[in-house]
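Notes on consecutive records. When two proteins share a document, each keeps its own sequence and its own C-alpha coordinate line. Never mix them. Below: protein one.
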Amino acid sequence: MNNHCHDIKHHSLERRGAKIHYWLTKHHSTASTVILTHGASLDHRMFDTQVKVLHDAGYRVLTWDVRGHGLSKPLGEEFTVQIVVEDLEEIIHKHELDEIILVGHSFGGYVSQMLTFLRAGKVRAMAVIGCMDIMEVPSFGMRIAYRNMSRIFRMIPESILRKRFAEGMGITEAVQNYALNTNKQLTRDEFIEVMDVGVRAIYEDPLFGKEYFIQKPFLLTHGEKDSAERGTFVKKAPDWAKRELYCQYKVIPNAGHNANQDNPDYFNGVLLKFIENLNHNQK
Protein backbone atom coordinates (compact mmCIF):
# COMPACT_ATOMS: atom_id res chain seq x y z
CA MET A 1 0.00 0.00 0.00
CA ASN A 2 1.15 3.54 -0.70
CA ASN A 3 1.40 4.74 2.88
CA HIS A 4 -0.52 8.02 2.72
CA CYS A 5 -0.54 8.27 6.50
CA HIS A 6 1.26 6.74 9.45
CA ASP A 7 -1.98 5.37 10.89
CA ILE A 8 -2.20 2.31 8.61
CA LYS A 9 -1.28 -1.05 10.10
CA HIS A 10 -0.52 -4.16 8.04
CA HIS A 11 -2.08 -7.41 9.30
CA SER A 12 -2.37 -10.97 8.05
CA LEU A 13 -4.25 -14.15 8.87
CA GLU A 14 -3.99 -17.71 7.59
CA ARG A 15 -7.14 -19.43 6.48
CA ARG A 16 -7.89 -22.42 4.22
CA GLY A 17 -4.46 -22.59 2.65
CA ALA A 18 -3.96 -18.87 2.04
CA LYS A 19 -2.28 -16.08 3.96
CA ILE A 20 -4.63 -13.11 3.73
CA HIS A 21 -3.04 -9.65 3.94
CA TYR A 22 -5.04 -6.59 4.92
CA TRP A 23 -4.53 -3.01 6.08
CA LEU A 24 -6.49 -1.18 8.76
CA THR A 25 -6.26 2.49 9.64
CA LYS A 26 -6.26 3.89 13.15
CA HIS A 27 -9.40 3.33 15.18
CA HIS A 28 -11.87 6.21 15.41
CA SER A 29 -14.18 5.32 18.29
CA THR A 30 -17.28 7.01 16.90
CA ALA A 31 -16.77 6.36 13.19
CA SER A 32 -17.92 3.50 10.99
CA THR A 33 -15.36 1.25 9.33
CA VAL A 34 -15.34 1.40 5.53
CA ILE A 35 -14.26 -1.91 3.98
CA LEU A 36 -12.96 -1.72 0.41
CA THR A 37 -12.91 -4.94 -1.66
CA HIS A 38 -11.18 -4.94 -5.05
CA GLY A 39 -12.19 -6.67 -8.27
CA ALA A 40 -10.89 -9.92 -9.76
CA SER A 41 -7.16 -9.93 -10.66
CA LEU A 42 -6.60 -6.53 -9.00
CA ASP A 43 -5.43 -5.72 -5.46
CA HIS A 44 -5.94 -3.35 -2.53
CA ARG A 45 -3.92 -0.57 -4.19
CA MET A 46 -6.82 0.30 -6.50
CA PHE A 47 -8.33 2.08 -3.48
CA ASP A 48 -5.26 4.09 -2.41
CA THR A 49 -6.94 7.42 -3.17
CA GLN A 50 -10.11 6.44 -1.34
CA VAL A 51 -8.16 5.34 1.76
CA LYS A 52 -6.59 8.77 2.13
CA VAL A 53 -9.83 10.68 1.60
CA LEU A 54 -11.88 8.47 3.92
CA HIS A 55 -9.22 8.51 6.63
CA ASP A 56 -8.92 12.29 6.42
CA ALA A 57 -12.71 12.50 6.80
CA GLY A 58 -12.47 10.59 10.08
CA TYR A 59 -13.43 7.07 9.07
CA ARG A 60 -11.63 3.86 9.85
CA VAL A 61 -10.69 2.10 6.61
CA LEU A 62 -9.91 -1.53 5.83
CA THR A 63 -8.45 -2.66 2.52
CA TRP A 64 -7.30 -6.16 1.72
CA ASP A 65 -5.88 -8.43 -0.93
CA VAL A 66 -8.42 -11.14 -1.69
CA ARG A 67 -6.88 -14.64 -1.55
CA GLY A 68 -4.59 -15.31 -4.51
CA HIS A 69 -4.28 -11.59 -5.25
CA GLY A 70 -1.53 -9.12 -4.39
CA LEU A 71 0.32 -10.31 -1.30
CA SER A 72 -2.35 -12.86 -0.33
CA LYS A 73 -0.71 -16.02 -1.62
CA PRO A 74 -1.36 -18.75 -2.54
CA LEU A 75 -4.90 -18.98 -3.89
CA GLY A 76 -5.54 -21.67 -1.29
CA GLU A 77 -7.60 -24.83 -1.19
CA GLU A 78 -10.45 -23.41 -3.23
CA PHE A 79 -11.62 -20.08 -4.66
CA THR A 80 -15.30 -19.15 -4.53
CA VAL A 81 -17.26 -16.02 -3.64
CA GLN A 82 -18.47 -17.78 -0.49
CA ILE A 83 -14.92 -18.54 0.69
CA VAL A 84 -13.83 -14.95 0.03
CA VAL A 85 -16.84 -13.74 2.03
CA GLU A 86 -15.83 -16.05 4.89
CA ASP A 87 -12.27 -14.68 4.74
CA LEU A 88 -13.64 -11.17 5.19
CA GLU A 89 -15.98 -12.31 7.97
CA GLU A 90 -12.95 -13.67 9.83
CA ILE A 91 -11.21 -10.30 9.59
CA ILE A 92 -14.35 -8.49 10.76
CA HIS A 93 -14.71 -10.88 13.71
CA LYS A 94 -11.02 -10.65 14.65
CA HIS A 95 -11.18 -6.86 14.97
CA GLU A 96 -14.75 -6.75 16.34
CA LEU A 97 -15.85 -4.42 13.55
CA ASP A 98 -19.45 -3.24 13.59
CA GLU A 99 -21.57 -0.72 11.70
CA ILE A 100 -19.48 -1.41 8.60
CA ILE A 101 -19.86 0.28 5.24
CA LEU A 102 -18.98 -2.07 2.38
CA VAL A 103 -17.52 -0.76 -0.87
CA GLY A 104 -16.91 -3.32 -3.61
CA HIS A 105 -15.59 -3.11 -7.14
CA SER A 106 -16.90 -5.67 -9.66
CA PHE A 107 -16.14 -9.07 -8.05
CA GLY A 108 -15.74 -7.18 -4.77
CA GLY A 109 -19.30 -5.98 -5.29
CA TYR A 110 -20.55 -9.57 -5.39
CA VAL A 111 -18.66 -10.23 -2.15
CA SER A 112 -20.24 -7.12 -0.61
CA GLN A 113 -23.74 -8.14 -1.73
CA MET A 114 -23.39 -11.60 -0.22
CA LEU A 115 -21.96 -10.30 3.06
CA THR A 116 -24.78 -7.74 3.32
CA PHE A 117 -27.30 -10.57 3.01
CA LEU A 118 -25.53 -12.93 5.42
CA ARG A 119 -24.56 -10.36 8.08
CA ALA A 120 -27.16 -7.63 7.72
CA GLY A 121 -26.89 -6.81 11.42
CA LYS A 122 -23.27 -5.72 11.03
CA VAL A 123 -23.66 -3.80 7.76
CA ARG A 124 -24.66 -0.16 7.86
CA ALA A 125 -24.58 0.54 4.11
CA MET A 126 -23.13 -0.71 0.84
CA ALA A 127 -21.67 0.83 -2.31
CA VAL A 128 -20.59 -0.90 -5.51
CA ILE A 129 -18.58 0.12 -8.57
CA GLY A 130 -19.09 -1.60 -11.94
CA CYS A 131 -21.09 -4.52 -10.59
CA MET A 132 -24.24 -6.49 -11.37
CA ASP A 133 -27.14 -7.55 -9.20
CA ILE A 134 -26.42 -11.18 -8.28
CA MET A 135 -30.17 -11.66 -7.83
CA GLU A 136 -30.81 -11.09 -11.53
CA VAL A 137 -31.30 -14.26 -13.56
CA PRO A 138 -29.43 -14.10 -16.90
CA SER A 139 -31.06 -15.30 -20.09
CA PHE A 140 -30.59 -18.95 -21.09
CA GLY A 141 -28.18 -17.92 -23.82
CA MET A 142 -26.06 -15.86 -21.43
CA ARG A 143 -25.96 -18.71 -18.89
CA ILE A 144 -24.59 -21.03 -21.58
CA ALA A 145 -22.02 -18.41 -22.58
CA TYR A 146 -20.96 -17.83 -18.98
CA ARG A 147 -20.54 -21.57 -18.33
CA ASN A 148 -18.16 -21.83 -21.28
CA MET A 149 -16.20 -18.71 -20.40
CA SER A 150 -13.17 -20.47 -18.93
CA ARG A 151 -12.83 -22.61 -22.07
CA ILE A 152 -12.94 -19.47 -24.18
CA PHE A 153 -10.31 -17.82 -21.97
CA ARG A 154 -8.00 -20.83 -22.44
CA MET A 155 -8.26 -20.55 -26.22
CA ILE A 156 -6.90 -16.99 -26.19
CA PRO A 157 -3.10 -16.55 -26.07
CA GLU A 158 -2.13 -15.56 -22.53
CA SER A 159 -0.46 -12.24 -23.38
CA ILE A 160 -3.46 -11.15 -25.46
CA LEU A 161 -5.93 -12.23 -22.76
CA ARG A 162 -4.11 -10.29 -20.04
CA LYS A 163 -3.70 -7.18 -22.19
CA ARG A 164 -7.31 -7.22 -23.38
CA PHE A 165 -8.58 -7.57 -19.82
CA ALA A 166 -6.36 -4.73 -18.58
CA GLU A 167 -7.51 -2.43 -21.38
CA GLY A 168 -11.11 -3.04 -20.31
CA MET A 169 -10.40 -1.87 -16.77
CA GLY A 170 -9.98 1.83 -17.45
CA ILE A 171 -9.84 4.61 -20.00
CA THR A 172 -6.57 6.04 -18.71
CA GLU A 173 -3.19 4.53 -19.49
CA ALA A 174 -2.25 4.59 -15.80
CA VAL A 175 -5.22 2.41 -14.83
CA GLN A 176 -4.63 0.02 -17.72
CA ASN A 177 -0.97 -0.36 -16.75
CA TYR A 178 -1.94 -0.94 -13.13
CA ALA A 179 -4.46 -3.63 -14.14
CA LEU A 180 -1.91 -5.36 -16.37
CA ASN A 181 0.74 -5.36 -13.65
CA THR A 182 -1.66 -6.77 -11.06
CA ASN A 183 -3.08 -9.50 -13.27
CA LYS A 184 0.49 -10.63 -13.96
CA GLN A 185 0.79 -11.40 -10.24
CA LEU A 186 -1.53 -14.34 -10.92
CA THR A 187 -0.43 -17.42 -12.85
CA ARG A 188 -2.34 -18.14 -16.06
CA ASP A 189 -4.43 -20.83 -14.34
CA GLU A 190 -5.12 -18.58 -11.33
CA PHE A 191 -6.09 -15.69 -13.59
CA ILE A 192 -8.58 -17.82 -15.50
CA GLU A 193 -9.94 -19.34 -12.28
CA VAL A 194 -10.65 -16.01 -10.57
CA MET A 195 -12.24 -14.66 -13.75
CA ASP A 196 -14.39 -17.78 -14.02
CA VAL A 197 -15.53 -17.48 -10.39
CA GLY A 198 -16.45 -13.84 -11.00
CA VAL A 199 -18.54 -14.86 -13.99
CA ARG A 200 -20.20 -17.70 -12.04
CA ALA A 201 -21.28 -15.19 -9.40
CA ILE A 202 -23.46 -13.62 -12.10
CA TYR A 203 -25.30 -16.73 -13.26
CA GLU A 204 -25.46 -18.91 -10.12
CA ASP A 205 -28.43 -18.44 -7.77
CA PRO A 206 -27.16 -16.93 -4.49
CA LEU A 207 -30.20 -18.42 -2.69
CA PHE A 208 -31.27 -15.14 -1.13
CA GLY A 209 -34.94 -15.80 -1.91
CA LYS A 210 -36.98 -14.41 -4.81
CA GLU A 211 -38.33 -11.42 -2.88
CA TYR A 212 -34.97 -10.26 -1.53
CA PHE A 213 -33.77 -6.71 -2.02
CA ILE A 214 -30.92 -4.79 -0.38
CA GLN A 215 -32.33 -3.55 2.90
CA LYS A 216 -29.59 -1.04 3.61
CA PRO A 217 -28.70 2.35 2.09
CA PHE A 218 -27.14 1.41 -1.23
CA LEU A 219 -24.94 3.41 -3.61
CA LEU A 220 -24.78 1.99 -7.13
CA THR A 221 -22.08 3.46 -9.38
CA HIS A 222 -20.29 2.71 -12.62
CA GLY A 223 -18.05 4.56 -15.02
CA GLU A 224 -19.75 6.40 -17.85
CA LYS A 225 -17.49 4.56 -20.31
CA ASP A 226 -17.38 1.17 -18.59
CA SER A 227 -16.91 -1.32 -21.44
CA ALA A 228 -16.25 -4.41 -19.29
CA GLU A 229 -18.45 -7.41 -20.07
CA ARG A 230 -19.39 -5.62 -23.32
CA GLY A 231 -20.96 -2.75 -21.42
CA THR A 232 -23.23 -5.00 -19.35
CA PHE A 233 -22.78 -3.03 -16.13
CA VAL A 234 -23.83 0.21 -17.81
CA LYS A 235 -26.83 -1.43 -19.48
CA LYS A 236 -28.09 -3.24 -16.39
CA ALA A 237 -27.57 -0.57 -13.73
CA PRO A 238 -30.67 1.63 -14.35
CA ASP A 239 -33.08 -1.30 -13.97
CA TRP A 240 -31.22 -2.56 -10.92
CA ALA A 241 -31.51 0.88 -9.32
CA LYS A 242 -35.27 0.85 -9.91
CA ARG A 243 -35.65 -2.53 -8.20
CA GLU A 244 -33.93 -1.41 -5.00
CA LEU A 245 -35.87 0.54 -2.40
CA TYR A 246 -32.90 2.34 -0.82
CA CYS A 247 -30.69 2.89 -3.87
CA GLN A 248 -28.84 5.99 -5.00
CA TYR A 249 -27.57 5.64 -8.56
CA LYS A 250 -24.62 7.69 -9.80
CA VAL A 251 -22.72 7.53 -13.10
CA ILE A 252 -19.05 8.55 -12.82
CA PRO A 253 -18.16 10.71 -15.86
CA ASN A 254 -14.95 10.24 -17.84
CA ALA A 255 -14.35 6.84 -16.29
CA GLY A 256 -14.25 3.18 -17.26
CA HIS A 257 -14.67 0.00 -15.21
CA ASN A 258 -12.27 1.11 -12.46
CA ALA A 259 -14.21 4.35 -12.11
CA ASN A 260 -12.72 5.18 -8.72
CA GLN A 261 -9.26 5.20 -10.32
CA ASP A 262 -10.09 6.84 -13.65
CA ASN A 263 -11.88 9.76 -11.99
CA PRO A 264 -11.02 9.60 -8.27
CA ASP A 265 -11.99 13.17 -7.38
CA TYR A 266 -15.53 12.80 -8.69
CA PHE A 267 -15.97 9.31 -7.26
CA ASN A 268 -14.63 10.33 -3.86
CA GLY A 269 -17.09 13.21 -3.72
CA VAL A 270 -19.99 10.87 -4.48
CA LEU A 271 -18.87 8.30 -1.91
CA LEU A 272 -18.24 10.83 0.85
CA LYS A 273 -21.61 12.49 0.29
CA PHE A 274 -23.33 9.11 0.48
CA ILE A 275 -21.60 8.26 3.76
CA GLU A 276 -22.12 11.70 5.27
CA ASN A 277 -25.83 11.48 4.46
CA LEU A 278 -25.96 8.29 6.54
CA ASN A 279 -24.76 10.29 9.51
CA HIS A 280 -27.27 13.10 8.91
CA ASN A 281 -30.16 10.67 8.55
CA GLN A 282 -29.20 8.98 11.79
CA LYS A 283 -29.48 12.20 13.79
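Protein two starts on the next line and is unrelated to protein one.
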Amino acid sequence: MKVIILAGGLQSTISHEREGIPKPMVDIGGKPLLWHIMKHFSEYGLTEFIICGGYKVDMIKEYFMDFYIYDSDITVDLKNNTIEVHKKRTEDWKVTVVDTGLFSATGQRVSKIEKYVDGDFLVTYGDCLSDINIRLLVETHYHEKKLATIAMVKPSGREQLLPIDAEGKLDFSNAIRVENDHAWINGDCFVFSKKIFKYLMGNHDLEKELFGKLTELQQAATFKHYGFWTAIETRRDLVEAENLWNAGIAPWMKA
Protein backbone atom coordinates (compact mmCIF):
# COMPACT_ATOMS: atom_id res chain seq x y z
CA MET A 1 0.00 0.00 0.00
CA LYS A 2 1.34 3.42 -0.98
CA VAL A 3 1.46 6.39 1.36
CA ILE A 4 0.48 9.83 0.05
CA ILE A 5 1.91 12.78 1.99
CA LEU A 6 0.37 16.22 1.51
CA ALA A 7 3.34 18.57 1.56
CA GLY A 8 2.26 21.43 -0.67
CA GLY A 9 1.34 24.20 1.73
CA LEU A 10 2.92 27.63 1.85
CA GLN A 11 6.25 28.43 3.50
CA SER A 12 6.97 27.60 7.09
CA THR A 13 7.19 30.43 9.59
CA ILE A 14 7.89 28.25 12.62
CA SER A 15 11.63 27.74 12.19
CA HIS A 16 13.87 30.73 12.89
CA GLU A 17 16.83 28.92 11.42
CA ARG A 18 15.39 28.24 7.96
CA GLU A 19 12.46 30.48 7.21
CA GLY A 20 10.97 30.28 3.74
CA ILE A 21 11.09 26.49 3.41
CA PRO A 22 8.20 24.03 3.10
CA LYS A 23 6.93 23.14 6.57
CA PRO A 24 7.60 19.39 6.04
CA MET A 25 11.28 20.29 5.63
CA VAL A 26 11.77 21.95 9.04
CA ASP A 27 14.33 20.13 11.15
CA ILE A 28 13.65 17.94 14.16
CA GLY A 29 16.85 16.45 15.51
CA GLY A 30 18.71 17.17 12.30
CA LYS A 31 16.13 15.41 10.12
CA PRO A 32 13.26 16.97 8.16
CA LEU A 33 9.79 16.57 9.62
CA LEU A 34 8.97 14.70 6.41
CA TRP A 35 11.59 12.05 7.23
CA HIS A 36 10.09 11.48 10.69
CA ILE A 37 6.64 10.94 9.17
CA MET A 38 7.95 8.51 6.56
CA LYS A 39 10.02 6.63 9.12
CA HIS A 40 6.88 5.95 11.17
CA PHE A 41 5.07 4.45 8.19
CA SER A 42 8.10 2.43 7.10
CA GLU A 43 8.14 0.73 10.49
CA TYR A 44 4.92 -0.97 9.34
CA GLY A 45 6.53 -2.18 6.12
CA LEU A 46 5.20 0.71 4.02
CA THR A 47 8.07 1.88 1.84
CA GLU A 48 6.43 3.48 -1.22
CA PHE A 49 5.65 7.16 -0.83
CA ILE A 50 4.12 9.82 -3.05
CA ILE A 51 4.84 13.38 -1.93
CA CYS A 52 2.28 15.96 -3.07
CA GLY A 53 4.44 19.06 -3.23
CA GLY A 54 3.67 22.67 -3.98
CA TYR A 55 5.60 25.50 -2.35
CA LYS A 56 9.30 25.06 -3.19
CA VAL A 57 8.73 21.47 -4.28
CA ASP A 58 12.22 21.50 -5.82
CA MET A 59 13.67 21.61 -2.31
CA ILE A 60 11.89 18.34 -1.51
CA LYS A 61 13.06 16.79 -4.80
CA GLU A 62 16.66 17.79 -4.13
CA TYR A 63 16.53 16.31 -0.64
CA PHE A 64 15.60 12.87 -1.95
CA MET A 65 17.91 13.07 -4.96
CA ASP A 66 20.85 13.56 -2.57
CA PHE A 67 19.37 11.53 0.28
CA TYR A 68 22.17 8.99 0.63
CA ILE A 69 24.78 11.76 0.73
CA TYR A 70 23.13 13.46 3.70
CA ASP A 71 23.38 10.28 5.77
CA SER A 72 26.81 9.12 4.60
CA ASP A 73 30.44 10.14 5.02
CA ILE A 74 31.89 11.53 1.79
CA THR A 75 35.20 12.64 0.32
CA VAL A 76 35.01 15.36 -2.32
CA ASP A 77 37.93 15.72 -4.74
CA LEU A 78 37.52 19.31 -5.87
CA LYS A 79 40.31 19.12 -8.45
CA ASN A 80 38.93 16.06 -10.23
CA ASN A 81 35.27 16.84 -9.48
CA THR A 82 34.56 13.43 -7.93
CA ILE A 83 32.73 12.28 -4.82
CA GLU A 84 33.56 9.12 -2.90
CA VAL A 85 30.87 7.82 -0.55
CA HIS A 86 31.96 5.98 2.59
CA LYS A 87 29.65 3.77 4.66
CA LYS A 88 26.64 4.55 2.51
CA ARG A 89 23.51 4.73 4.68
CA THR A 90 20.06 5.14 3.23
CA GLU A 91 16.44 4.01 3.56
CA ASP A 92 14.68 1.23 1.67
CA TRP A 93 12.13 3.66 0.26
CA LYS A 94 10.72 4.42 -3.16
CA VAL A 95 9.70 8.09 -3.29
CA THR A 96 7.72 9.88 -5.99
CA VAL A 97 7.63 13.67 -5.66
CA VAL A 98 4.87 15.41 -7.61
CA ASP A 99 4.29 19.13 -8.09
CA THR A 100 0.56 19.39 -7.35
CA GLY A 101 0.40 23.18 -7.52
CA LEU A 102 0.97 26.09 -5.21
CA PHE A 103 -2.65 26.86 -4.32
CA SER A 104 -4.34 23.48 -4.82
CA ALA A 105 -6.71 22.29 -2.10
CA THR A 106 -6.03 18.94 -0.46
CA GLY A 107 -8.60 17.05 -2.50
CA GLN A 108 -7.17 18.34 -5.75
CA ARG A 109 -3.64 17.41 -4.69
CA VAL A 110 -4.73 13.82 -4.13
CA SER A 111 -6.59 13.72 -7.45
CA LYS A 112 -3.43 14.80 -9.28
CA ILE A 113 -1.50 11.70 -8.24
CA GLU A 114 -4.14 9.16 -9.32
CA LYS A 115 -1.94 7.75 -12.09
CA TYR A 116 0.66 6.73 -9.50
CA VAL A 117 -1.82 4.74 -7.38
CA ASP A 118 -2.74 1.15 -8.17
CA GLY A 119 -4.89 0.18 -5.19
CA ASP A 120 -6.14 1.37 -1.81
CA PHE A 121 -3.81 3.93 -0.28
CA LEU A 122 -3.01 5.96 2.82
CA VAL A 123 -3.03 9.75 2.99
CA THR A 124 -1.44 11.87 5.70
CA TYR A 125 -0.41 15.47 6.20
CA GLY A 126 3.20 16.61 6.10
CA ASP A 127 3.03 18.41 9.44
CA CYS A 128 1.64 15.78 11.84
CA LEU A 129 3.46 13.32 14.08
CA SER A 130 1.80 10.41 15.87
CA ASP A 131 2.19 6.85 17.06
CA ILE A 132 -0.97 5.72 15.25
CA ASN A 133 -0.92 1.96 14.74
CA ILE A 134 -1.00 1.91 10.95
CA ARG A 135 -1.56 -1.84 10.82
CA LEU A 136 -4.73 -1.58 12.91
CA LEU A 137 -5.90 1.44 10.90
CA VAL A 138 -5.60 -0.49 7.65
CA GLU A 139 -7.24 -3.57 9.17
CA THR A 140 -10.17 -1.40 10.27
CA HIS A 141 -10.49 -0.05 6.74
CA TYR A 142 -10.76 -3.51 5.22
CA HIS A 143 -13.11 -4.71 7.96
CA GLU A 144 -15.49 -1.77 7.53
CA LYS A 145 -15.44 -1.98 3.71
CA LYS A 146 -15.96 1.77 3.24
CA LEU A 147 -14.47 4.17 0.72
CA ALA A 148 -12.59 5.98 3.48
CA THR A 149 -11.41 5.34 7.02
CA ILE A 150 -10.50 8.39 9.09
CA ALA A 151 -8.16 8.27 12.08
CA MET A 152 -9.57 10.25 15.01
CA VAL A 153 -7.50 11.56 17.90
CA LYS A 154 -8.17 13.35 21.17
CA PRO A 155 -8.05 17.16 20.99
CA SER A 156 -5.48 19.35 22.68
CA GLY A 157 -7.99 22.19 22.95
CA ARG A 158 -7.42 24.28 19.84
CA GLU A 159 -8.68 22.03 17.05
CA GLN A 160 -12.06 21.75 15.34
CA LEU A 161 -14.05 18.83 16.72
CA LEU A 162 -15.34 16.07 14.47
CA PRO A 163 -19.14 15.65 14.51
CA ILE A 164 -19.50 12.16 15.99
CA ASP A 165 -22.96 10.83 16.80
CA ALA A 166 -23.96 8.53 19.69
CA GLU A 167 -23.00 5.45 17.68
CA GLY A 168 -19.52 6.73 16.96
CA LYS A 169 -20.27 7.59 13.34
CA LEU A 170 -19.51 10.80 11.51
CA ASP A 171 -22.48 13.12 11.12
CA PHE A 172 -21.91 16.37 9.23
CA SER A 173 -25.64 17.08 8.91
CA ASN A 174 -25.96 18.75 12.32
CA ALA A 175 -23.69 20.59 14.70
CA ILE A 176 -23.15 18.25 17.63
CA ARG A 177 -22.30 19.64 21.06
CA VAL A 178 -19.98 17.28 22.89
CA GLU A 179 -18.22 17.29 26.21
CA ASN A 180 -14.43 17.21 26.07
CA ASP A 181 -14.26 13.61 27.35
CA HIS A 182 -16.18 12.48 24.29
CA ALA A 183 -14.60 14.87 21.80
CA TRP A 184 -12.55 13.73 18.83
CA ILE A 185 -10.70 15.55 16.07
CA ASN A 186 -9.44 14.61 12.65
CA GLY A 187 -6.05 12.90 13.01
CA ASP A 188 -5.08 13.80 9.43
CA CYS A 189 -4.39 10.17 8.55
CA PHE A 190 -6.75 8.30 6.23
CA VAL A 191 -7.12 5.09 4.25
CA PHE A 192 -8.88 5.47 0.91
CA SER A 193 -10.26 3.01 -1.59
CA LYS A 194 -9.01 3.63 -5.11
CA LYS A 195 -12.66 4.28 -5.98
CA ILE A 196 -12.38 7.56 -4.06
CA PHE A 197 -11.01 9.39 -7.10
CA LYS A 198 -14.47 9.66 -8.66
CA TYR A 199 -15.42 11.91 -5.71
CA LEU A 200 -12.34 14.14 -5.98
CA MET A 201 -13.51 16.41 -8.78
CA GLY A 202 -12.72 20.09 -8.46
CA ASN A 203 -10.51 22.12 -6.16
CA HIS A 204 -11.91 21.27 -2.74
CA ASP A 205 -10.67 20.20 0.69
CA LEU A 206 -10.88 16.62 1.85
CA GLU A 207 -12.47 17.58 5.16
CA LYS A 208 -14.94 20.22 4.01
CA GLU A 209 -16.42 18.60 0.92
CA LEU A 210 -15.32 14.98 0.55
CA PHE A 211 -15.97 13.71 4.07
CA GLY A 212 -19.38 15.33 4.19
CA LYS A 213 -20.31 13.62 0.93
CA LEU A 214 -19.01 10.26 2.13
CA THR A 215 -21.00 10.41 5.36
CA GLU A 216 -24.16 11.08 3.35
CA LEU A 217 -23.39 7.92 1.40
CA GLN A 218 -22.48 6.04 4.61
CA GLN A 219 -19.05 5.41 3.15
CA ALA A 220 -16.85 6.86 5.91
CA ALA A 221 -15.51 4.70 8.73
CA THR A 222 -13.57 5.92 11.75
CA PHE A 223 -10.60 4.62 13.73
CA LYS A 224 -10.07 5.94 17.25
CA HIS A 225 -6.47 6.54 18.27
CA TYR A 226 -5.90 7.10 21.99
CA GLY A 227 -2.14 7.61 21.86
CA PHE A 228 0.24 10.37 20.89
CA TRP A 229 -0.59 12.88 18.17
CA THR A 230 0.56 16.42 17.45
CA ALA A 231 0.40 18.90 14.61
CA ILE A 232 3.54 21.00 14.12
CA GLU A 233 1.83 24.35 13.67
CA THR A 234 3.77 26.71 15.93
CA ARG A 235 7.31 27.29 17.10
CA ARG A 236 6.28 25.82 20.45
CA ASP A 237 5.10 22.60 18.75
CA LEU A 238 8.44 22.32 16.99
CA VAL A 239 10.43 22.83 20.19
CA GLU A 240 8.35 20.24 22.06
CA ALA A 241 8.90 17.68 19.30
CA GLU A 242 12.61 18.48 19.26
CA ASN A 243 12.82 17.99 23.02
CA LEU A 244 11.14 14.58 22.79
CA TRP A 245 13.54 13.54 20.05
CA ASN A 246 16.65 14.75 21.86
CA ALA A 247 15.54 12.95 25.04
CA GLY A 248 15.23 9.70 23.09
CA ILE A 249 11.52 9.34 23.85
CA ALA A 250 9.91 10.42 20.58
CA PRO A 251 6.56 8.53 20.61
CA TRP A 252 6.34 8.43 16.81
CA MET A 253 9.45 6.23 16.64
CA LYS A 254 9.35 2.60 17.70
CA ALA A 255 11.88 1.63 20.34
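For the record: Residues 2-150+186-205+220-246 form a domain with the Spore Coat Polysaccharide Biosynthesis Protein SpsA; Chain A fold (CATH 3.90.550.10).
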